[in-house]
Every structure is written in structure tokens, then in C-alpha cells.
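Bit of a strange request maybe. I'm writing a small parser for C-alpha cell strings and I need a real example to test against, not something I typed by hand. Could someone generate the C-alpha cells for this chain?
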Amino acid sequence: MLSCSQLYSEQPAVDQYVKNWRITDLFGTVDSLKSDTLHLNYHELNSIDKYSIANSYNGNLGSPLQSKIYSDRKEIDDFMFANAYMPYMQTINTTRFYTTKTPFSTLKYLTGGSNYRESDQVGFLFTANANKNLNIGTTIDYIYARGEYLKQSAKRFAGSLFGTYKGKKYAATGNISMNSISNFENGGITETSYITNPAFGYENPENIPVRMGVDAQSTFKHFQIFYNHSYSLGFEREVKKVKDSVITEFVPVTRFIHTISIDQMSKRYYEKTLENKFYKNTFGTNTNDTAALRRVSNRFAINLAEEFNKWMHFGLTAYLHNDMDRFTFVQNKVLTDSVLTDTKVGGMLSKELGKKLTYRFGGEISLIGYKAGDVYLSGEAGTSFKLWKDTISLKAKVFTSTKEPDFYQKKYESNHFKWDNNFDKVFKTHIGGVFAIPTKSLLFEIAIENISKQIYFDTLAMPIQYNGSIQLITAQLKKDIHFGKFGLDNTIIYQETTNDKVMPLPRLSLFHNLYFQDKWFDVLNLQVGVTARYHTSYYAPSYMPAIGQFYNQREMKIGNYPVISAYGSIHLKRTRFFVEYFHLNQKFMKGIYYSMPYYPINPAQLRLGLTWNFYD
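Reply from user aminoacidic:
Good idea to test on real output. This should exercise your parser:
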């Protein structure tokens, strides 16, 4: 979990050797990132802890995951089976791009858990500039987590090959990534008493009975090719004169932009022998459910560049976007193959340069295809100014959308679930703002959202559409306090929903990190501290293995239990190391430490991590 000072700093994302960024949209817009060599809060490195301050998951690293904070949830359009694996995926949205003075590489190793039940993660990054314009790189990341409970092991392989080219007129960004994630399904443990008051014979988590008696496994795969390139027309502008020579720079006037993206996603749920006790329905004699989506997207855009106009600093973009989707699953024992297209037009007015005022206003509408009538309108603006010795930053964001439901929410068939729905479009409006004082490590954010015709999974884990409207308000406060060599990072999130049966959320979620930080011998950075995570009790959604979805339930409340961990980390030149004792309060505190109904988090355990950077 990044502290407020890390999250909202005005310092550029650059160190002595490496500059890195990501792209935020299909236009190839650049957003600078913090250097991945920071030493503060290095222990918050695993995919679960850094995703959100409160999460629902199966208790094991690599298992399906959903944030309990509504604003933190990330989703992939039209393939609902991918949403539970989003935090583990390597895609264009998570790829870091680099410019390096020397070849840069990183080795990462994380481990934790009891003997013979360890969770291990190994990662590798290499990137280098062939010249000042061209950078290429590759990443590999592998997780193998056995899990503390029965039938819980998970593994994940993610890899990517990426590159950027930035010439005077031609620029390009490319990325090829693949993800393969699989996890065994156990349905959760049978009784809460096994963790609150362990019965004889069940002191060890691996001996606790689970709700599914057969070997069942879920597998998700994703392959993506992304390529964005642009060609600029413009002129040379004089920068300055040096003796008898003139230094000029190229100023773009018009950019022609093309982006192509190819995504192949598939989900499989397999039972070695038929499980007919856990599920309410079983339609066949064996279970081998599959669903897939192949999407080919093309976007063509013309951009009137912001840089060339001295008097009216803004950029103007118009674009045409087309998706060709192929949905595949088995229906009535017959392979169903649906090819659908969607064509939309859009435009954007933006000002990205400068600090006094930046804005981006855009809109798009689907004209042809199965999403005809979908509309998305958005606007965001920001400014910053000095007030005495402090910098005040203000941001505002609004959007409204009319969206076609996910294809598989409307039609799907498997051995335990089947449905054929005629859902209406979902309508959302959002108004939000951020007030920050980076020099005081303070950030306050508030958002109000209205959702009409919300689609959710009911207590039977069936998709259903709510005919009314739901209002949601979210307020988040981040404040870091520093006193000498001590620090206290605080995150407080309040959520209020007008219908918790449709959208259950914890009202209050907290994260605190109290630590001591010092630098020894001018080279060794030390951080020692304690973290605490907490949220109020509520009817948390549970998880349905056969469809890989989180569904609403009204039988068990989860929460009102803190998770406290102690850690220590060091950063010595190119090496970072941490040791953490996760969930140490389980040793002296009784409670139902469930992540969600039937799924407990791991008991107290030791975790270790090591990262080694190379700049040559």
C-alpha cells in the first residue's frame, strides 16, 4: 500500500539511471510512474496487499480476488470470468515502459507460509535502450502457492515483451503479454469453529475439512497483442542560438494515430469426478465447462496537437473505433460461436501541459453493432497552486455512461449453471473530486455515483438485474504523519450504499502503518514497523467456483476483525530485503478471520522478500 507521500508526490518518476511510465488509453497517452526502486513500504509487494486495503479472496496468493472497496475494482468488458484474476494479470494497462541510460534488470523473490505449504513468487525484468529513441524489454513473473488449507493451491505465469520508439515524427508503443492462472477450488471450510476453537485433530489448517469433496480446478488464460503508433506533421521551431548555430525543435501540429489490440481470453472449470453435493443443480455426468472471447480492436484517430499553439493550449482528437468479438461456449452440448461487432465514434478536447490548469473532456457513442446506443461522456480537470509554503492540488471528475451488459451475463451454460437473460443497458453517473496538499502528505477524495439497472449475482449465484437505482457515496482520507524518524501512514475509506442487498460494502475500512525509518552508514535504509487492516462487519459476497463469480449472501457477516502484521526491511544500494510476520494477532486474539464467507485468510506466518537491481 503506497503512502500518501508516495502516491501524490510532485517529484518526477526518474532516478539516476531509469525513467518509466505507462500509457493510459488507446491514444498512447503517457503517465509517469514512480521508480520501482523505492525502499519505503517494500513489504507491501504481493499482489493482494498492494491491490486494495480490503479484499475478498480464497485465502491464498493467486486465488480469485475482489476488492471490498468499490472504487478499486477493475473489470474487463464483456468477459466477466477475467475480473477475479485482474490483480494478477500482465496487460497493457499494467505494463511499465522505460528509458534507460544503461541496461536495467531486476530479480525478485517472495516466499511465505508454513513448512511444505509455502507460497513462492519469482519475477524478472530486463530493459535496455538500443539508442536514444528505441527501448525494448521483457518481464517474467511466476507464482506457485500451495496454500495453508486443503485443495487450495494456485499457480500463475505472466510474461511480456515490450518496446517503445520515439522519433521526431514517428512514435510507437508495443506490448505482447500472456497470462496463465490456475487454482484448485475447495468451496471454503465447513465450519467457522475450526478456526475460532480448533477441534481435536484440526489444529493444522491443512486438516480442516472443506465443502467440496472432489478435485476441481479453474483455469484462466489471456493473451494480448497491443500496438500503438502515430505519425506527426509539424514544423521546426527555433529554441536558441549558440554562437553561429541555431538549435531547433520539432513541433507537432497534427498526429495520425492508429492502435490495434488483439485479446484472447478463456476460462475453464473442470471436475475430476462429478461434484453434485456442493451445487444445487447438476445437468450432466461430467464437468468440463469452457468459455472464451477473442477481440480484435482497431482505433483510428486524428489529433490536433497541443504543443504548437502558443495562445490556446489545448489538443483536439477525433476517432473511429471498431471491436470484432467472438464468443464461444457450449450450449445444449453444442459449441455456440457468436461473432458480434461494435463501431463507435468519439472525440476529446484536452489540455495536458502545465500545472495551473489541465483538463480532458470526451465522449463516444456506439452507432453500429450489438452495443448500438452505448454512450460514454466524461470530463476531468485539475489545478495546483501555491498557498504560503504549501502546494494545493484540486481535481474533479464526472462521467455518465449507458452500457450494454456483459455477453456472458446474458447467456451462458455449464454443468451446474445455465441462464438466458434479456437485460437492459446499465446506466451510471459519477461525480467526484480530490483535494490534496502533497507538501503535507494529505489527500481527501469524495465521489457520488448513481447506478440504474445494476446487474449482480444473487444468493443463488445467478445473474439478476435490479430494476431501480442505487446511490453510492465514497469518501477517502489519506494522511501521513511524520515525527522525527517515525512515520504513521493512514488510509480511511467510508462507503455508503442505499441498497446493501444489491451492492454490499463495508461501511468503514482502515489501513495504518506505524514505522521507524533511518539511514545507517550513509548507504543502508532501514524501516521497521507494524501494519493494521480493518473493516466493519457486513454481509460480504461469497465466491462460486463453477462460474468464478462473487455472489451476494445474507447468512454470514464478515469483518470487525483486525489483521496486524510486523515487518522490517532494508535497502542497501541495489538490494532490497524484507521480513514480515503476517497476521501475528492470530496468536493471541480469537475471531472469525474470514476474507469472505467460508474462506479464512491465512493464519500467522512468516514472509520474506528480496529484490536485486542491476544497472549494467
